[in-house]
Design brief:
Layout: H1 27-32, E1 37-41, E2 44-47, E3 52-55, H2 58-61, H3 70-82, H4 94-106, E4 111-117, H5 120-137, E5 145-149, H6 158-163, H7 167-170, E6 180-183, H8 189-192, H9 208-216, E7 221-226, E8 229-230, E9 236-237, H10 242-253, E10 256-260, H11 274-278, E11 284-287, E12 299-304, H12 305-311, H13 331-346, H14 349-365, E13 373-379, E14 382-387, H15 396-409, E15 411-412, E16 414-416, E17 419-422, H16 430-446
Parallel strand pairs: 3-15, 5-6, 5-7, 7-10, 10-11
Antiparallel strand pairs: 1-2, 2-3, 4-12, 8-9, 11-12, 13-14, 14-17, 16-17
Helix pairs in contact: 3-13, 4-13, 14-16, 15-16
Bound molecules: pyridoxal-5'-phosphate.
Pyridoxal-5'-phosphate (PLP) binds at residues 119-121, 124, 153-155, 227, 231-232, 260, 262-263, 288.
Length: 448
């Protein structure tokens, strides 16, 4: 799908950028040399100075169907006219039930219920709270420990931050939740470098959970949460059979397994959910981002019936779970979600991603001889390219690459330290993959 539309006229920008404290952003550097966006269509963003930028990041792992999809925009507009807001506690809207059913339909069999929230962070915290409440309801209230993984990212709530394993996200925020522990990350460059798809080595990293079981006792552990592909830390695909082994160990010890599929959900790895790619059924699965193509904030937790049914006891008039958000299943997000799922289905975008994966992997691997490239990892329509740090220390070369991409090469990519992450919308054409790789080559050389 080649977008032949030209660049757009420049738009006015505010002359004072000080008031907005930007999230996860180097505010002072940004405000000196802003990367301002004004529009988007299909595979491109348009900058406020009218340049057309190819999107190699799906925004932020969100816009899997590309940008400016009319079907989604009109669904949101129509919904805003018909019903702008409805309370989700004790009341409901048809679209919420319909969307939940549609998500269950494409989810692995057994994940039969959806709890809606508004972001990936809320989804992680919701899943962790459900895990604790489940064990308490089930007569095992001693299971209060939550286990994450080093280098994991589960958003910025206190739950997600606690089980998360990226040091910068944790170190400023005190002791976080108590009783949390982490299994080791799954990356070993010596044994895995330049792997396409799941590395052959590393299923044994799952055994680290046995270490924590031996340390804490299985009957103190409520749940383990992992991303099937660790995204934010720099794209680390699960090693072959790692997730299967983690499932076996959790099952053996009565520990709930939560997959955080905020990035991997909705086609990123060539399937509706990564759980399907790996043939592993978790007890809960969190999603966000791609559920609305990024067009409205929404997140959610898919829950197995065995978990859900545990709560559906006691007096029928009593609230079963004291948890939820004012904007859970917001009408505009539900409308966006339904329109998005229609597009994914009608354009067979998950299958498209699956078919494109080998070509995409080959194209990205062609960068391995470029300066400072020390590893490349690919899985689905996602790649992480590790650059060696420059003399100014970790992250400086990555930041220079972000700026070179945006300001000099009309390219949007994501960075994680010195890792460049490529995660284009799933509508990306073969030609556009080539164009992205050409631009990334220029960027890597520019920051050499
Ligand atoms: C795996 C994962 N979980 C949770 C989140 C947090 O999502 P949000 O920023 O919508 O709160 C992210 C965001 O990138 C993510 O990648």
């Amino acid at each position: 799908m080649l977008d032949k539309s030209p660049a757009r006229p420049a738009v006015n920008v505010p002359n004072d950028l000080t008031a907005f404290w930007m999230p996860f952003t180097a505010n002072r550097a940004f405000k000196k040399a802003p990367r301002l966006l004004a529009g988007a269509k299909d595979m491109h963003y348009f900058t406020t100075d009218g340049r057309k930028i190819i999107d190699a990041a799906a925004g932020m792992w969100c816009s899997n169907a590309g940008h400016g999809r009319t079907q989604i925009a009109s669904a949101i507009a129509k919904q805003a006219e018909a019903l702008d807001y409805a309370p989700p506690f004790q009341f409901g809207i048809p679209q919420a039930f319909e969307l939940a059913s549609r998500i269950v339909e494409i989810a692995p069999k057994g994940l039969d219920h959806v709890f809606f929230c508004n972001s990936g962070s809320e989804a992680a915290d919701t899943a962790l709270k459900i895990a604790l409440a489940y064990h308490q309801t089930n007569g095992q209230g001693g299971r209060t420990r939550l286990i994450g993984r080093e280098r994991g990212y589960h958003g910025v709530g206190f739950g997600g931050t606690s089980v998360g394993g990226m040091v910068n996200n944790r170190k400023m925020f005190g002791t976080l939740l108590t009783g949390v522990d982490h299994i080791s990350a799954t990356y070993d460059r010596e044994k895995q470098a330049f792997s396409k798809g799941e590395p052959e080595y590393g299923a044994n990293f799952a055994d680290d959970l046995e270490r924590l079981v031996n340390l804490h006792g299985a009957n103190t552990i409520a749940a383990v949460i992992v991303e099937p592909m660790a995204g934010s830390t720099g794209v680390i695909p699960a090693p072959k059979n790692y997730l299967k082994r983690l499932r076996e160990i959790t099952q053996k010890h009565g520990i709930l397994l939560i997959f955080d599929e905020v990035i991997t959900g909705f086609g990123r790895l060539g399937y509706a959910f990564a759980a399907e790619r790996y043939g592993v059924l978790p007890d809960m699965l969190t999603f966000a981002k791609g559920v609305t193509n990024g067009a409205a904030p929404m997140g959610g937790v898919l829950v197995r019936d065995t978990v859900y049914d545990t709560f559906m006891t006691g007096p029928a008039n009593a609230v079963e779970l004291f948890h939820g958000y004012t904007y859970s299943a917001h009408p505009l997000a539900c409308a966006a979600g339904l329109a998005t799922l229609d597009i994914y289905r009608d354009e067979k975008l998950f299958e498209r991603a699956n078919k494109l994966e080998p070509k995409f992997a080959d194209a990205v691997m062609s960068l391995r001889k470029e300066p400072n490239v020390v590893d490349i990892r690919t899985v689905g329509i996602t790649a992480g390219i590790d650059l060696a740090p420059n003399k100014n220390g970790p992250g400086d070369r990555g930041f220079a690459a972000l700026n070179s991409a945006f300001h000099d090469n009309d390219l949007m990519l994501r960075i994680a330290g010195d890792t460049l992450a490529l995660t284009p919308p799933l509508i990306v054409s073969d030609d556009q993959v080539g164009e992205i790789i050409d631009k990334v080559t220029k960027v890597i050389r520019a920051v050499a």
